[in-house]
Design a protein that fits this description.
Strand content: 25-35%
Helix content: 25-40%
CATH class of the largest domain: Alpha Beta
Order of helices and strands: EHEEHEEEEHEEEEHEEEEHHEEEEHHHH
Structural class: alpha+beta
CATH superfamily of the largest domain: FAD/NAD(P)-binding domain
Radius of gyration: 22 Å
Number of strands: 19
Number of domains: 2
CATH topology of the largest domain: FAD/NAD(P)-binding domain
C-alpha cells in the first residue's frame, strides 16, 4: 500500500473548473491533489469536434492566474460586439435591436473584448499539460475515491488503496455530484423542456468579431465568433435552443438538411454556411444548491449551480468560483490560517452564492420572457430592447455583467 499523501486541497473532478482550480493552487505552491473518475482525454485531437467555450473577460483573468491562457495551443476568437434581436421563424424580424460595442463598456476595464471563443480541446490540452508539469500537484485519473470528512481534515481513499489526507475537499464533479449528495446538500432544479444544440459552422463572410443572440419562440439562437483555421477562415460556434421534440428531429437530419435549418435561424448576413465537426445536444435545466459548503467541503461549478445557456454564463460562473475559492485559499495559506476551516468556507459562500443566484434568476426570467410568440409579450420586449439600446448607462451595466468584471 502506498504511503499516505498530505495535501492542503483535494479536488474531485478534473474538468475545466476543477482542473483550472488545481492549476491555480499548484502554481502558487499549494499542495494539491486532483482525482477524476475518467482518464484524462488524449493531449492531441487532430480535428476540431465542434465544441467551444465562451470565456468572459473575468474568466480569462482566472485562466491567466492559473497559467493556462498562455499555454493555449490555438488562438481564441475575440468577441468585440454583441447584437441582440427578436424574431419569428419564417417571418420578418423586428427592426428593434440592441447592439453592444466593447468600447462602450468603460475605459477602466483592461480587457479588449467582451470575451473569447475557445475550442474545448484547446483548454483541455492546456489543463492537461499544466497538470502533468506541476511538481506540487498529485494527479489520479482514472480513479474512484471515497471521502470521509472530519472536523479538522478529510480522508480521501482511492480504490487502489492510496490514502490522501487533505484540509479541504472540493467537489467539481458536475451536476450529479456524489460529494454534494453525501453531504446532504439539497438542490432546486428547473426543467425547461428545451434542448440545446451546439457545434460550429464555416461561413462565406467574416463575422468581424460580432456575436448574434437572436430570440425565437422556441428559444434563443446564438452565433459566436471564433478564430478561423486554414480550412475555414470564417468560423463561428452556434448555440441553438429548441423544444425537445423539435431538437430530436433536427439532430436526426443529414448534414445538408441540418445546415439549411440552421441557416433559416441565422439569416444570410454571413453568407452560406456549412457545419464543421460534430453537432451535440444537451437537455436544458437549471440547478442550484441550497448551500455551497459543508464541513471541510466546498462546491464549485456545476456541482453548485447550473443555469440556462441564454446568456452564455454557465461555465463562467464556475471559473468565478475557482477564482474566488483559489484566492481565499492562497490568502489563508499565506497568513498561516486553516485553508479548510469554517471562516474560509463562510467567506467563499458569501462571495459566490449571491452572484450565482442572481444569474440563475436572470437567465430563467430571460428564457421565459423570450421563449414565447405572444404578441403582447413580443411588443413589450421589443420596446425594452430598443429602450436599453438608447440608455448608455444601462447598456454599460449589462456589458460589464456579461464580461464578468
Amino acid at each position: 500500500m502506498s504511503e499516505q499523501i498530505e495535501v492542503d486541497v483535494a479536488i474531485l473532478g478534473a474538468g475545466p473548473v476543477g482542473g483550472t482550480l488545481a492549476c491555480l493552487l499548484a502554481r502558487a505552491g499549494i499542495a494539491t491533489a486532483v482525482i477524476d473518475r475518467a482518464a484524462l482525454p488524449p493531449m492531441e485531437h487532430p480535428d476540431f469536434d465542434g465544441r467551444a467555450y465562451a470565456i468572459a473577460a473575468g474568466s480569462r483573468r482566472v485562466l491567466e492566474e492559473a497559467g493556462l491562457w498562455a499555454e493555449l495551443p490555438y488562438v481564441p476568437g475575440a468577441i468585440t460586439d454583441i447584437r441582440v434581436s427578436d424574431g419569428r421563424l419564417g417571418r420578418a424580424a423586428s427592426r428593434l435591436f440592441l447592439h453592444f460595442d466593447r468600447r462602450e463598456a468603460g475605459d477602466d476595464i483592461e480587457a479588449e473584448a467582451f470575451g473569447w471563443m475557445l475550442e474545448a480541446r484547446a483548454l483541455r490540452m492546456a489543463v492537461n499539460a499544466a497538470l502533468d508539469a506541476s511538481p506540487d500537484l498529485h494527479v489520479f485519473a482514472p480513479a474512484e475515491a471515497k471521502v470521509v470528512r472530519h472536523a479538522d481534515h478529510a480522508i480521501v481513499t482511492l480504490q487502489s488503496g492510496q490514502v490522501i489526507r487533505a484540509r479541504l475537499v472540493v467537489a467539481a464533479e458536475g451536476r450529479n455530484s456524489p460529494l454534494r449528495e453525501q453531504a446532504g446538500i439539497r438542490t432546486t432544479r428547473i426543467a425547461y423542456g428545451q434542448t440545446g444544440i451546439v457545434g460550429a459552422i464555416a461561413h462565406e463572410l467574416p463575422h468581424n468579431g460580432c456575436a448574434l443572440e437572436h430570440f425565437l419562440p422556441a428559444g434563443p439562437f446564438a452565433q459566436l465568433p471564433m478564430a478561423g483555421t486554414a480550412g475555414a477562415p470564417n468560423l463561428s460556434a452556434f448555440v441553438w435552443t429548441e423544444r425537445d421534440a423539435t431538437a430530436q428531429r433536427l439532430m436526426a437530419l443529414d448534414e445538408a438538411s441540418f445546415a439549411r435549418e440552421l441557416q433559416r435561424r441565422l439569416g444570410t448576413h454571413l453568407g452560406q454556411v456549412r457545419v464543421m465537426g460534430r453537432r451535440w445536444s444537451y437537455s436544458l435545466s437549471a440547478l442550484h444548491a441550497e448551500r455551497y459548503t459543508a464541513e471541510r467541503l466546498a462546491l464549485v461549478g456545476d456541482a453548485a449551480h447550473g443555469v440556462h445557456p441564454i446568456a452564455g454564463q454557465g461555465l463562467n460562473l464556475g471559473f468565478r468560483d475557482a477564482g474566488a475559492l483559489g484566492r481565499l485559499i492562497l490568502a489563508a495559506h499565506a497568513a498561516g490560517e486553516d485553508v479548510g476551516g469554517a471562516a474560509l468556507l463562510r467567506a467563499y459562500q458569501a462571495q459566490r452564492r449571491p452572484d450565482s443566484l442572481a444569474m440563475l434568476a436572470a437567465t430563467d426570467a430571460l428564457d421565459r420572457l423570450f421563449s414565447t410568440d405572444n404578441r403582447a409579450v413580443r411588443l413589450v420586449r421589443d420596446l425594452g430592447i430598443a429602450a436599453v439600446h438608447r440608455m448608455p448607462r444601462l447598456k454599460r451595466a449589462f456589458m460589464r455583467a456579461a464580461m464578468g468584471v
